Amino acid sequence: MTDRARVLAYRVAAHQFDRGTADPAALRVFDLGVQDSERSAVPALAARLPEVPDLSAFTLTWSVRGAPHWHRPKSLPALAAALWPLSDADALARMNRPKVDAPLDVFRAVVEALKSVVDGPMTKGEASTRLTPLVPPEVTGWCRGCRATHVHDPIFRVAVLPAGLRFDPDAKTVTFVPIKGRRIPQRTRGFDGLVHDYLALHGPAGPSEVAAYFGAPVKDVKAVWPDDLVEVSRGKFLPADRVEAFENPPSPDVARLLPPLDPYLSARDRDLLVPDKAHQKEVWRILGRPGAIMMDGEILGIWRAKVSGKRLDVTLSPFAPLDVERFEEEAQRVARARGLESARIK
């Protein structure tokens, strides 16, 4: 088995594509959270579970990189502390601002103000209106779309979790709900645990991949890099309890239609996942993201779908000749995950 084949085999097993558990909470992807920016979470979980999952026991909020993720509810206080910026430079990076004086202080001011104004269920628009006059002016600006001055959206997003807010998933518009017992973190605590979680799922990898995933400066990640990791190849690490799984991964035998933003695609070493640069551009399009055709860990093409009545029409665009029959059942699963009755591969 080549080095690359070993990494892919390890990740297929780590992502639990074997559908060996029926309990969503037991999936390793929830250690980091499951992104749901484009209705991607349920199909992503269905690729790992025997049945379409019920997410009512999980909590949705803006967390990693300010993107919406589903999490185990009990993990949120620790996650808020672990994601607290590591430094002033990290705070600038997380807020996506070129220059702010005392960035950590400004970040805390925004979080404290957001916590104070959202004292019950509240829409994003109402929260933004209340928040804007309470924060430093350098984090606000005129928005053409809203025709109003408000806190820049990236800053708003990364402040939501440390302010102790979650979403009401049943609301038609973004609505925040305070998390019971919420407390603002005093400092970064537990980032090393997130490093372990990333490497367990997407390793072996190094500080640059971890930094890119969390949107933090590489310098800061290197400064807090855990010393209990095992370097399995030059500059690539794994948690010690995952080394044996890496050395002896089962041979993958899976065919999946991964949705856009599936956790498997969120690893930051894209050259390893998809070596061909032209194919990378297809898989990770910025606009109009497609799904990815995955067989035995290899990304073999992209797919798109269109709803036709109660049927999902799936169009496959493989990078090379493909055994389409292996994906017929997966197309049906994707349809069920989207609440449809059937699927047809075109």
UniProtKB/TrEMBL annotation:
The keyword DNA-binding applies. InterPro entries: AlkZ-like. It comes from the Bacteria. GO terms for molecular function: DNA binding. Keywords: DNA-binding. This is Winged helix DNA-binding protein. It comes from Saccharothrix variisporea.
